[in-house]
Amino acid sequence: MSAFQSHFEVSGGVDMTDTSTNITAETVEEIREIAARYPQARSALLPALHLVQSVDGRISPAGIEVCADILELSTAEVSGVATFYTMYKRKPVGKHLVGVCTTALCAIMGGDHVLAALQEHLGIGNDETTADGQITLEHIECNAACDYAPVMMVNWEFFDYMTPHSAIELVDALVADNPVASPRGAEITSWRAAERVLAGFPDGRADEGPTAGDASLLGLRIAREHGWSAPVPNVAADNQTEEAAQ
């Protein structure tokens, strides 16, 4: 029987020995602004952590402490969330975060080969960053984009039907700072810029580029060609059913 091999080799906690931070008074005020959007301040933790990453490039000890103080949480609670979700990074991320899906259909369609090709080309393994700080490469689980398998993400933007060759061309363009646009999204900026958007500070580019592809719209197109539509709900009948159940 072969031993289980995890793709997530580094699963420990935040590096508390690195106390460097770029958090400023402005960052603190922005976390307060995020907290004010919620009935309970603690509910703002996820976007607040994204904001921390947008300035520190990772979840830093200083970021944990600031979030805990503003959101009225313990540092242990903040650390628990930061180390639970893989979208929160425990060590510095490069300018671009490149993720390759190798789950189920993506694996069948060649995702493993795409990941292997990038690892060899960049000279790094999973969850590692190139020496020039341009690319952090990671294996990721399902991107919910099986109709475009195998897929990659760059700073959370989709890239579809990837091959080892097209993946290498993509990262080379990123390293060279050439313009790169997602086939179903905006032009790529940086991972930190994307993190700021996830924190709730839009960059005005949400409608840039197409938001859906042909594969996703196929069912809608067929329905329109045949005049199909969803049944209209009978509200009165539904109410009677609920009353009878009571």
CATH architecture descriptor text of the domain at 96-198: 3-Layer(aba) Sandwich
Output mean pLDDT.
89
Q: What Rg do the Cα atoms give?
A: 22 Å
Q: How far from one another are the termini? A: 54 Å
Spell out the helices and strands N to C.
HHHHEHHEEEEHHHH
**Structural class by sheet pairing and helices:** alpha+beta
Please, what is the CATH homologous superfamily of the domain at 96-198?
A: Glutaredoxin
Query: What percentage of amino acids are in beta strands?
Result: 5-15%
Summarize this entry quickly.
By secondary structure, the chain is of the alpha+beta class.
Task: Please describe what this structure looks like.
The chain is 42% helix and 8% strand. Residues 1-11 have low confidence and may be disordered. Among the domains are: 25-82; 96-198, Glutaredoxin. The relative contact order is 0.11. The radius of gyration is 22 Å and the shape is globular. Helix 1 (25-35) runs antiparallel to helix 2 (45-56) and helix 2 packs antiparallel against helix 3. Strands 2-3-1-4-5 form a five-stranded mixed β-sheet. The protein has helices at 25-35, 45-56, 61-71, 75-82, 104-108, 111-122, 164-175, 191-198, 214-226, 235-245; strands at residues 96-101, 128-129, 135-140, 152-154, 157-159. The protein has ten helices and five strands; from the N terminus they run ααααβααββββαααα. The chain is α+β, with helices and mostly antiparallel strands.
